[in-house]
Amino acid sequence: MGRITLDKVTKSFGDVEVIPPLDLTIEDGEFTVFVGPSGCGKSTLLRLIAGLEDISSGQIRIDGNDATHVPPSKRGLAMVFQSYALYPHMSVRKNIAFPLRMAKLDKAEQDRRVDQAAAVLNLADYLDRKPGQLSGGQRQRVAIGRAIVREPSAFLFDEPLSNLDAALRVGMRMEISELHKKLATTMVYVTHDQVEAMTMADKIVVLRAGHIEQVGSPLELYHNPRNLFVAGFIGSPTMNLISGPEAAKRDATTIGIRPEHITVSDKKGEWKGVVGVSEHLGSDTFFHIHDTGLAETITVRAGGEVGFRHGDTVHLTPREDVMHRFDAQGLRIA
Amino acid sequence: MARSVTSQRKAINTAVAWAVGLLIFFPILWTILTSFKTEAQAINDPPLFLFFDWTLENYTVVQERSNYMRFLWNSVFIAGGSTILGVMIAIPAAWSMAFVPSKRTKDILLWMLSTKMLPAVGVLYPIYLIFIQFGLLDSRLGLVIVLMLINLPIIVWMLYTYFREIPGEILEAARMDGATLREEILYVLTPMAIPGIASTLLLNFILAWNEAFWTLNLTAAKAAPLTAFIASYSSPEGLFYAKLSAASTMAIAPILVLGWFSQKQLVRGLTFGAVK
What we know:
The complex is a heterodimer.
Chain A: E1 4-13, E2 16-26, E3 31-35, H1 42-50, E4 57-62, E5 65-66, E6 77-80, H2 92-102, H3 107-120, H4 136-148, E7 154-158, H5 166-183, E8 186-191, H6 194-200, E9 203-208, E10 211-216, H7 218-223, H8 228-233, E11 240-243, H9 245-248, E12 254-257, E13 262-265, E14 271-280, E15 284-290, E16 298-303, E17 313-318, E18 324-326
Parallel strand pairs in A: 3-8, 3-9, 6-7, 7-8
Antiparallel strand pairs in A: 1-2, 1-4, 4-5, 9-10, 11-12, 12-18, 13-17, 14-15, 14-17, 15-16
Chain B: H1 7-34, H2 39-42, H3 57-65, H4 68-99, H5 105-114, H6 124-134, H7 140-164, H8 168-176, H9 181-192, H10 194-210, H11 213-218, H12 226-231, H13 241-261, H14 263-270
Helix pairs in contact in B: 1-13, 3-13, 4-7, 4-10, 7-10, 8-9, 10-14
Family (chain A): Belongs to the ABC transporter superfamily.
Keywords (chain A): ATP-binding, Nucleotide-binding, Transport
InterPro entries (chain A): AAA+_ATPase, ABC_transporter-like_ATP-bd, ABC_transporter-like_CS, ABC_transpr_MalK-like, ABC_transpr_MalK/UgpC-like, Mo/tungstate-bd_C_term_dom, NA-bd_OB-fold, P-loop_NTPase
């Protein structure tokens, strides 16, 4: 119902190639997240799938059918935009019904589907309002409503939560995940926020400069990053990446160790350092340790009750069994 | 922070604004006053301002001598027709320039505007010949086409400016929602640009209404609009100021009323997008 295949897809704007040849398959019903720093081509890739941009070469198939030259209106996909892109002159009801009206569905069926979507999204009381009279979260729900009524074969989300405040974002994240469980429809979601990617995705596609750096489940990426870029991008706070003699000692150019895999003690340990900034989150505390003799500042996660102060000398012990090793090219050493 | 303005300053500003306003309005006022004078009073020296024998004689003469309604209808048809036709052509043109611009879009816009810098008389001869060839002389259709063409650059420019204010994502959303290009323009773009389109319609209706060069040169009797009606009261000899004024007043009255009622819309449209 919603299997999307990209086959050697490229995209150039003039002489600038933003997407070098790229292959990717998004399975039916999967929640796939494109993540990467800004300018990595993730939104462009989504727009290529939507048909809002033409691909320069290659092929896009939706459910096995060649969709490369099919206009966006005929691809059977629905999209939710960062700016919501609601029609300001139409009421919420008309906004949600718009795709149905374009599909020439009869009025009764339109109303039935709009009411159903409004019930799912808690919009029933707002159907007669204009988008301008709604809050950001409500507007985003209308945009989602407009997407679900047409029962698309896949949903495309282009950074849909970026315009919302932090608290609302967490709520909407859950709503979208919930919606995915309920509809079991393919969703492709673009974000620069790796927390969103980790919490929502079945499959994460990490992109950099149009290249796919790694594809995998959130935990696969977390535990087995293929290269330094993925290692540094996935996880918050980021993995400690250490090069120099400590890495050489372990036959690597760079070693990576996650903050939760380092024990901190005031008595003994492998590395000695001084506590800098501490971030107290209540459940956890993150200590930033410097003057360890390593080039990098080391971030360590400890329990919320651990109470070292700024300037205290501490000892650190990394867990060797979960340490990541990377070669000179930045690739993981098995 | 609001700037404080002293009441003295305010009074001066008000006086200056009124003075400028009256100066601009004076010729129209003088025309209207003259239309109520006798021909002799109209050329009186010193000129008579308000104290003369008010008479409707000129209006009666004008009414008897020519069929005002026919001229009025021609004006409405030509101005209305050329404006509507122009907007129908300009909406897709402005859409493409605003939403799928190419490297040459700016050049095309400038080129279109540059045609307005050409003296109209420079192309009178070829257009006159084309009109003869196609049997368009003294026809309303011919004037609709010519006035549409000469106002088209302005219509496209205005609509282009309004369309640029509309976020492209909304049109993309319409495309994703299954709208064809025609539906996208009809149901999404046009309703959103209504204030801009309305003021474009108004301004171009006024421009076409007031157009004299082409209407005088390309019409004789059948298709002559109100501009030709005015001109027919100017004569090389005899007294005609009062009658000419009466004819002018009758010609500008409809557009004056239209302008008065739509001034809010006009100002809003012309400053659209300047203030968010």
